[in-house]
Design a protein that fits this description.
The chain is mainly beta and about 80 residues long. Helices cover about 10% and strands about 30% of the residues. A five-stranded mixed β-sheet has the order 2-1-5-3-4, with no helix packed on it. The protein is globular. The N and C termini lie far apart (about 40 Å). About 15% of the residues are buried. The mean pLDDT is about 95.
């Protein structure tokens, strides 16, 4: 299956060639955690994920044609 991925903030360094927006082929039944692992994102990294505009956790399943947005929490003061 093909999933479109958009990486923001510090997660962009894990994207292929540092691109913010890319597509990736995954096995059927893959979850957000599988994609993060494939990109080399450490498990301890605090990641916010949204699939097709809906916030999800790492165990959320992905489907062909999904758009996954990944970013880290913002800090402010």
């Amino acid at each position: 299956m093909i999933v479109r991925v958009k990486c923001f903030a510090g997660l962009r360094r894990f994207a292929p060639d540092g691109r913010k927006d890319f597509t990736i082929e995954l096995d059927a039944g893959a979850k957000v955690a599988h994609l993060l692992d494939r990109l080399g994102v450490p498990v301890a990294t605090d990641v916010i994920a949204a699939v097709n505009g809906r916030r999800v956790d790492r165990e959320a399943p992905l489907e062909d044609g999904d758009t996954l947005v990944l970013f880290t929490p913002m800090e402010g003061g």
